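Entry for the shared binder. Reason: the reviewer on the internal report wants the predicted structure included alongside the sequence.
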Amino acid sequence: MKETVEIAKEVLKNNRRSGYTLPTNNKLYPAQWNWDSAFIALGYSYFNIDYAIKELETLITGQWDDGMIPHILFHDNDESYFPNHKTWECGNKIPSSGITQPPIIATIVKKIVDKNKLNQGQMKRMEIIIKKLKKYLDWFFNYRDTNKIGLVSIIHPWESGLDNSPIWDSPLDKVKIEENLKYERRDLNVSKSENRPLKKDYDAYITLLNQFKKDKYNPSKIVNESMFNVIDIGFNSIVIRATKDLIEVGKRFNLNFSDLENKIALSEESLIKFYKEEEQSFFSYDFKNHNLIKVDAISNYFILFADLGNKEINNKIISKLKKYNSQREYFFTTVNPKDKTFEETRYWRGPVWINSNWIIYQGLINKDKNFSELLKNKTLELLENKNFHEYYNFKNGDCLGANNFSWSAALYLDLKFN
């Protein structure tokens, strides 16, 4: 029987195409995804550093002139996925989607540079990537921080990476669905409907997409006109950490990104206002409709990943997190099982996702060593028992979604060797 490490490597290599890697080897996701590729590159860095750098380079190739890196790059004419390149009708050099995803890539690049002895050629390639990432982070502050408070908005649930989290339910309910909407979902051909987003969710997703397309994806226009505009705790936590990590890794290349330091200070000052002492939680804010979104979802705890310099609040968040999935076989569920929105097997509404665990683990390492080790060991146990799937049932580890899932394999390697 093959060791799990070797199986993980095989999953990545088998999903690899010409310079990039698919999230899985079935027809569910036949393209390159932004934060998937970042996680995948980290996995490659444990056994093929050139594959890792190439994965990042290919993703960066799709960067738009304004600095945005899209959430999907369509490298071929595969139309089995919806919405595909014909639906989006945009892209720079490579057909792409017209929205982005969490910039976890900056943190991944720092980790790869920190733990590898790169040769001169590899360092040069990384320097080019890092300069492009500066432009990417500038894009967030230029176009998504419309109030200049250091916090960025997402204008579509897909940008969050947690596509159908119940955090988006209330904002999506207020989206006026386009009349005579016509589209064909392809995800239901390869995945069970009870595990996927509902039709009403997709109606809203495509309505928003069509609005952006009519506005020609003008970043200044769509952020103000989108019927969906949320200051998401999880997303902003990743942006803050990405900004900190980019500053630090830039120093290795004599790149001065000190202008970002003021952004971090402002971001943290603003984000702390979304902490509610009564619940000992951070909550996302529906900026469009001026409502706090009180859903106990795992992405609220990504605040630990941001490394806020407030030990008292961090300890309160950790204390609550320890009760979040207490007495459960596997954790963390994407929504607290006690929350009324929890659904045991539906996509981002309940199952365990490996990347969420990884993000929480990174946030715990320097705050609660014992708890971080428990989370790491439970995650490794799940993967070693069940292998590499898209998401898992928290009660018994039952495999859900796609199999041979790339980021589950990649993050296994990082957890295993750290």
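Summary line for the report: The chain has 16 helices and eleven strands.
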